[in-house]
Amino acid sequence: MKRTKKERQRLLMETIKENPFVTDEQLASQFGVSVQTIRLDRMELSIPELRERIKDVAEKNYENEVKSLPLDEVIGEIIDIELDEKALSIFDVKEEHVFQRNGIARGHHLFAQANSLAVAVINDELALTVKSNVVFVKPVKVGDRVITKAIVRGQDHEKNRTYIDVLSTVNNETVFKGEFEMYRTKGKGDTE
Amino acid sequence: MKRTKKERQRLLMETIKENPFVTDEQLASQFGVSVQTIRLDRMELSIPELRERIKDVAEKNYENEVKSLPLDEVIGEIIDIELDEKALSIFDVKEEHVFQRNGIARGHHLFAQANSLAVAVINDELALTVKSNVVFVKPVKVGDRVITKAIVRGQDHEKNRTYIDVLSTVNNETVFKGEFEMYRTKGKGDTE
DNA sequence: ATGTATTTTAGCACTTGGTACTAATACCAG
DNA sequence: CTGGTATTAGTACCAAGTGCTAAAATACAT
Q1: A90 or A188: which carries more pLDDT confidence?
Q2: Region B115-122: what's the mean pLDDT?
Q3: CB-based contacts of A184: which residues, under 8 Å, 6+ apart?
Q4: What pLDDT digit, counting tens, does each position of B70-115 carry?
Q5: Is A144:A113 a contact under the CB 8 Å cutoff?
Q6: What is the similarity comment for this entry (chains A, B) (predicted)?
Q7: Is the domain B75-184 a CATH 1.10.3300.10 member?
Q8: Strand C atom within 7 Å of A117 CB
Q9: Which residue of B has its CA nearest to A175?
Q10: Cβ–Cβ gap B108/A106 under 8 Å
Q11: Residue A67: pLDDT above 50?
């Protein structure tokens, strides 16, 4: 016994958290105890067996994959869109979007929702943000549902620019607003 | 045999790709064949067994997790920081940051790097973005290494504001610039 | 129809990484 | 020495397979 049982179990927890892919046998030799001891430890700490641990990791991944697919294309979910006119999206603020310290959403998530909505509303192959002025009016908290509206204000056909206003609200209160100047390859109504 | 072997194997591939968590037994009953047939099919198609599949998903996840953890705290990696003075971060643009269509980075990733650097440079418990004006000067492509510098320009102690200029470059060429107005709880040098 | 080939099924031994349980030791304290 | 905790050993069993052999079913051709 190098150190107490408690100490070993503490290390065991850490080790497994750090690398869930480790077998009891590996753990046993690492801690210089028998496999049975490791099993007993796992039971006491209610740490599931290797396969379950792997499965857990895999399942977590799977959720994320499903979640990040639309989340990659547009931040938030588009609920209404009239191309080159306006668009509406909602975005539920979760734990992973906020500062742990105070539960306030990181600015770039709100920006991302607004920006990707601005891209989406443009009826074109290519739409890029050129400039934007944004104001974070009021802190957004975890659990808030942010509703964002993008309205196409106008276009400069010569410069291939589209101007979009974006307004985000939570419970009808403005939390974020911004103006986006977007570049696009073809103007509204242009033919290929 | 409802349809040919080929057809079954095609469906088998799809089914497993869609849901890798399925056992041979489940597949057998789903396709109305014996477990052995499924095993043969998997061999011919060189699809690994359930546990291997799960492990693969888990391992893929693990990579991502390591990637997304620092990516959540600060977008990009901070390579130098002088609190309340300036900070420097690098961000390698990968496939997942760009539009598939043209390989150009989505604006909000550049914004996120700039924004999180602006948050990081502030030596305070709480730092929130109030306003920002940003310009996307030049498209950033996959593979580019974006170097972003944040410089604290000034403070308004009465309003608890800090003003930060951010400049991002790729190969010494400016690709993005922005001004950030940040809210902070305490001013530089203030004591608790 | 008969023969040959392909496909499918069955059965058995063996593998990993375990669980569940029992029993034997070892160690340490009073 | 006796008791209690900690550790180890050993057995039976499980899931979800692999690997292998062999039989049965089906298809296809002549």
Answers
A1: A90
A2: 90
A3: A122, A124, A126, A127, A128, A160, A161, A162
A4: 334 557 778 778 889 989 899 999 887 877 667 888 888 899 999 9
A5: no
A6: Belongs to the FapR family.
A7: no
A8: no
A9: B130
A10: no
A11: no
Answer for the pair A87, A117: CB distance below 8 angstroms, yes or no. Answer: yes
Q: Is B68 a residue whose pLDDT tops 90? A: no
Residue limits of CATH 3.10.129.10 in chain B: 75-184
Question: Which residue in B57, B61, B53, B59 sits closest to B26, CA to CA?
Answer: B53
Candidates 3.40.50.2300, 1.20.272.10, 2.60.40.420, 1.10.10.10; correct CATH number of B5-67?
1.10.10.10
pLDDT of res. A6: 87
Q: Which of B80, B82, B139 is nearest to B110 (CA)?
A: B139
Query: Quick one: pLDDT at residue B66?
Result: 38
User: What's the half-sphere exposure (Cβ side, CA atoms, 13 Å) at A137?
Assistant: 13
Chain A residue numbers touching B116 (CB-CB < 8 A): 106, 108
User: Tens digits of per-residue pLDDT, A43-66?
Assistant: 999 999 999 999 988 887 665 443
CA dist., res. A111 & res. B108, Å (int): 7
Question: Closest nucleotide (CA of B5 to C1')?
Answer: C7
Q: For strand C, is any atom closer than 7 Å to the CB of A188?
A: no
One-letter amino acid identity for B125?
E
Q: What is the pLDDT of residue B78?
A: 80
Q: Are the C-beta atoms of residues B170 and B146 closer than 8 Å to each other?
A: yes
Segment A78-125, tens digit of pLDDT: 777 788 888 888 898 888 788 877 889 888 889 988 998 998 888 877
Judge whether residue A42 contacts strand C, using its CB and a 7 Å cut-off.
Answer: yes
- The residues, ordered by sequence, that sit 6+ positions from B129 with a Cβ below 8 Å of its Cβ are A107, A136, B115, B118, B119, B180, B181, B182, B183
Under the banding of pLDDT at 50, 70 and 90, the label for residue B2 is: low
- Helical residues (DSSP H) of B124-175, grouped into ranges: none
In angstroms and rounded to an integer, the radius of gyration of the C-alpha atoms of chain A is 25
- Minimal Cα–Cα distance from B133 to chain A, Å? 4
Handedness of CA A103, A104, A107, A111 (dihedral sign): positive
SS3 B118: helix
Give the number of other Cβ atoms within 10 Å of residue A131's Cβ. 18
